[in-house]
Amino acid sequence: MRTVLYMRTSTRGQTIDHQLTQAQQAGFVIDEVVADAGESGISTTLAERPQGRRLFDLLREGDTLVVRWVDRLGRNYRDVSDNIRAFMDRGVVVRTVIHGMTFDGSIKDPMLQAVRDALLGFMAALSQAQAEATKEAQRVGIEHAKKAGEGDRKYRGRKPSYSRGTFNKVMEMLESKTGPTVIANATGLTVQTVLRITRNPEGAAAALTAWGE
Predict the structure, then answer these.
(1) Into how many domains does the chain fold?
(2) Domain that holds residue 187
(3) Would you say residue 63 lies in a domain?
(4) What is the pLDDT of residue 103?
(5) How far apart are alpha carbons 69 and 21 in whole angstroms?
(6) What DSSP assignment string belongs to 103-138?
(7) Average pLDDT per 10 consecutive residues for the chain, totaling 213 residues
(8) DSSP secondary structure, 17-63, as one string
(9) Cα separation of 141 and 134, whole Å?
(10) Are residues 107 and 17 in the same domain?
(11) Are residues 113 and 46 part of one domain?
(12) pTM of this prediction?
């Protein structure tokens, strides 16, 4: 029986090492790491990712699959829920680093099964909603920057003290409910900068676009 950590990074602000460290700090002892880099969680299914496909061949009954969050396993509600159920059907336990969720197909009690399935559906739907909200914030930021540039191309405001990669990492850590002080320490930003991004992510994204980031 093995514990396999599957990781996906979809932006420059996300790193393989960061997700592995999170898993280890949560108490997981990882036997093997499987990782996809640069694969969009919204546009690419798990089965379409090179290492995502490998999971279906690698994992066996009794194994544990660890992921940072359920959104690592699909692009939307249907993809996430179907993949987790597929792993449970083959006897694989799926566990998350964030909030310590466990999805175990060996549960026989019908009431516990109902609770597990309801939780799975809710978390899969939440993952899709968060992904869509992030994508919309980025779209609004880009449009805002374009309109501002059309009105006065010379004025772009103060140059951001963060890069696109750092901004993406802040947004990723915010999704996992990480506090501003921890985010500041991890990204090298000041707490004030992290708070500004938190209060107005659309404006922060627009500032980066205005400066060509």
Answers:
(1) 2
(2) 155-210
(3) yes
(4) 95
(5) 14
(6) E-TT---HHHHHHHHHHHHHHHHHHHHHHHHHHHHH
(7) 86 63 91 78 77 92 94 86 94 93 91 88 80 71 62 61 88 81 89 87 82 70
(8) HHHHHHHHHTT---SEEEEEES--TTT--GGGSHHHHHHHHH--TT-
(9) 11
(10) yes
(11) yes
(12) 0.62
